[in-house]
Amino acid sequence: MGTGRFNNETVKGRTKTKRKADNMKPVRGNQRFLRLAKAVECGVVVFLAGVQFTVAQNGPLYNLVDLAFVGMLPNWPYGAEVPCIAMGINNNGQVVGWGTPKSNEQAFLYSNGTVTFLGSLGGGESEAYGINNNGQVVGAASVGGLNYHAFLWTQANGMQDLGTLGGSMSYAYGINNSGQVVGEAYEAGNAAGHAFLYSGGVMTDLSTLGGSWSSAFGINDQGQVVGFSDTASNAAYHAFLYSGGVMTDLGTLGGSSSYACGINNCGQVVGVAETTNGAWHFFLYSGGVMTDLGFGGSPIGLSANIMPTGINNNGQIVGCSGGRAFVYSGGEMFDLNTRIPSTLYPWDGPLWLAAATAINDNGQIVGYDDNGYFGYQADAFLLNPLPVISFNLSGGSVTLAWPTNFASGFTLESTTNLASPVVWTALTNAPNVVNGQSTVTIPVSGTQMYFRLNQ
User: Fold this and answer.
1) pLDDT tens-digit readout, 246-287
2) Contact 127, 118 (CB under 8 A)
3) What is the helix (H) or strand (E) element at residue 67, kind and residue range?
4) Checking CA distances to 291, which of 61, 158, 374, 409 falls within 20 to 30 Å?
5) Phi and psi for 320 in degrees, rounded to 5?
6) Helix residue ranges, H only, 135-227
7) pLDDT, tens digit (0-9, with 9 covering 90-100), for 220-243
8) What pTM did the predictor assign?
9) Cα torsion 376, 316, 311, 158: sign
């Protein structure tokens, strides 16, 4: 799922544009850790018999992997436009997007710590937008001049041209686990582009809601497709849900326009829609009802248009607003800039995560940050959710617990003083694993104690 195509100012435009960030900061993300201490501002402090403990965070925390440092930087020409943007992630943690390893944009696949560039269809440039759990990648690649064609890439067969609906261009934006592909393709004469579904070697025109243009952005494993379409007489554009051969208009939040950005296997659709006063709110459509999730009172201060870009099967939503990446989880919106360590690049000022573009079912998030340190470029990032420690105080002991599947390879450590240099000591207590939870009971000692999981 991408970001550039969801800009309210350009969604009706039909020319290929590049996203360019204004102020971006690269970060090295090779240390996974959980800080349950003063450094986590959202921590809650409690006391028992004069002993201070720091509790699990309120909301998710993440470590950050900067993919430019993993695979782009060694070949990166300083000053090149849009060096690295991540657009999709599957449940295996494989990431796709595009970067500039030399002089042209190239689709990439990040897997097991390695970046692989996927080539093109002869024109020298390519961009990847989506990946399924089988490692099949979709996107668009240059076939010469300014023309791009949708592609399907597999490890076995490389990059396959999916063709068009008779025109000169097409773009593939989403793929499900059955290998069905959706996107937009131009018709003969290039007068209009329509949403398409590619399945079994055939590209099918999904038509429109009565207007000229349509585009499909997401598809779930049931074959349900979402996107946007012009309405009759091209009066507006509306979000649609295509299911069982029928394109359904999802309506708006009282305004004139809307578009859908993603759909999960529960049939939940996320997108944006205009309200009666012309503001853009993001919505969740489920069970035939479009719910306004609004943006009032959120920690991001959403005065600008909001752009959700993806939803996972747990109902977590990611996107960007006002140039800041967010995750919507458990009914609350979190600015992702506040959910990562703030000291990753202390010599270069605060990190700025500009947009989150996709989230998988494990809660891993991809997108791009804004990097002012290396010439105002975009760097792709991967956020890995950190295991959350919960605890229970009883008598003179504290019992710590964390999800076993999240914390594989982690060591529980403690310290009694956060003054630099902090000395963390690994605890030798063997965790007791019950019902997917690792627990350790530790006697209370000293005047204050801090704990973390470190890898």
Assistant:
1) 999 999 999 999 999 999 999 999 999 999 998 888 899 999
2) no
3) helix 67-67
4) 61
5) -145, 155
6) none
7) 999 999 999 999 999 999 999 999
8) 0.77
9) positive
- Smallest CA-to-CA distance from 271 within 283, 280, 287, 263 is with 283
**Any idea which residue has 């990648």 for tokens?**
137
The label of the residue with tokens 């009066």 reads 235
Residue recorded with tokens 């997007």:
97
Phi, then psi, of 299 in degrees rounded to 5: -70, -10
Helix (H, G, I), strand (E, B) or coil at 405: coil
What the block records as the tokens of 390 is 């919960």
Q: Which amino acid is residue 367, in one-letter code? A: G
Cis peptide before 421 (omega within 30 of 0): yes
- Backbone dihedral angles phi then psi of residue 23, each to the nearest 5 degrees: -145, 100
- 3-state helix, strand, coil split of the chain in percent (to 5) is 5, 50, 45
Q: CA–CA separation, 115 vs 72, rounded Å?
A: 8
101 in Cβ contact with 72 (< 8 Å): yes
Pair 407, 387: CB distance under 8 Å: yes
AA letter at 124? G
> How many whole angstroms separate alpha carbon 131 and alpha carbon 360?
11
Q: Which amino acid is at 129?
A: Y
Q: Which residue has the tokens 């041209």?
A: 161
Q: Is the dihedral of CA 66, 71, 76, 80 positive or negative?
A: negative
**DSSP E strands: which ranges in 188-224?**
193-199, 202-205, 210-219
CA 445/CA 53 separation, integer angstroms: 11
